């Protein structure tokens, strides 16, 4: 028994799975730019910067409508979609805040987070309300609006439900979440987010939102997902769970 105990004590601890080198480098760069840039005081949480943008969206879009004297139907619909999503995010954050956003960040990090990603979402509304975009949709107006609103609503439900399930499940039982919204899709919260911002880009119907989303989805979402997959792979049952689920959409076969 003593010999067995000694062997167990000397056994090396299992190594933590590491993400691919490219993803790890991208994650370190993003973390530095948005959290640690230039060092110095850390006066605010990451969540405060995000919530400022979310809370300000309704007001910002309303001011754009006033400034450009645009009270068209499409402007009101976009205000309802993007502005209400921001309010829904605030309700979510107040109810089950994401631990990842609670870290303190530097002043330059907060500015980078807003200027590099969050602020660009406001450009979507400016393009539409100022008259630089919209109006040339591939379907009749009513059908296109219905498509965009439906994507926004369904995406918001998926994102909030997935975040709520993850938050409360991990409080009670750490490890893999393999039921509920995670039964067929490994990252449903990202699926919901992509549906939401995809609906905004479709409503605006301009090349610039496509570029912004390409940067966010490939440079931020994809990196986060790859790193998360590496972290989840340490849990028992991962290989089976991965084989029967899809990354962002359910597997059909």
Break the fold down into its secondary structure elements and pairings.
Blueprint: H1 2-10, H2 21-36, E1 44-45, H3 46-67, H4 73-95, E2 104-105, H5 107-129, H6 141-172, H7 188-204, H8 207-232, H9 238-244
Antiparallel strand pairs: 1-2
Helix pairs in contact: 2-5, 2-8, 3-4, 3-5, 4-6, 5-7, 5-8, 6-7, 7-8
Please describe what this structure looks like.
This protein has one domain (36-244). The chain is mainly alpha-helical and 253 residues long. It is 69% helix and 2% strand.
Order of helices and strands: HHEHHEHHHHH
The coarse silhouette is globular
Helix content: 55-70%
Using only C-alpha atoms, the radius of gyration works out to 21 Å
List the uncertain runs. Answer: 1-14
Strand content: under 5%
Short description:
The protein has 253 residues and is mainly α.
Relevant terms:
two-stranded antiparallel sheet; single chain; mainly alpha; globular; 253 residues
């Amino acid at each position: 028994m003593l010999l067995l105990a000694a062997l167990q004590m000397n056994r090396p601890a299992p190594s933590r799975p590491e993400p691919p080198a490219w993803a790890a480098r991208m994650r370190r760069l993003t973390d530095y730019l948005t959290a640690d840039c230039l060092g110095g005081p850390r006066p605010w949480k990451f969540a405060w910067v995000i919530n400022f943008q979310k809370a300000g969206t309704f007001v910002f879009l309303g001011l754009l409508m006033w400034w450009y004297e645009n009270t068209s139907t499409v402007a009101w619909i976009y205000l309802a979609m993007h502005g209400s999503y921001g309010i829904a995010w605030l309700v979510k954050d107040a109810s089950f805040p994401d631990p990842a956003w609670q870290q303190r960040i530097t002043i330059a990090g907060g500015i980078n987070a807003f200027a590099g990603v969050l602020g660009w979402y406001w450009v979507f509304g400016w393009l539409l309300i100022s008259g630089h975009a919209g109006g040339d949709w591939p379907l009749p107006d009513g059908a296109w609006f219905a498509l965009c609103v439906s994507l926004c609503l369904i995406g918001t439900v998926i994102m909030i439900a997935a975040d709520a399930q993850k938050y409360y499940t991990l409080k009670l039982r750490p490890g893999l979440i393999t039921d509920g919204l995670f039964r067929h899709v490994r990252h449903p919260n990202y699926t919901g987010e992509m549906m939401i911002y995809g609906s905004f880009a479709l409503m605006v119907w301009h090349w610039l939102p496509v570029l912004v989303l390409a940067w966010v989805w490939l440079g931020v979402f994809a990196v986060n997902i790859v790193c998360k997959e590496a972290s989840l792979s340490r849990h028992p049952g991962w290989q089976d769970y991965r084989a029967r689920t899809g990354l962002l959409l359910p597997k059909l076969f």
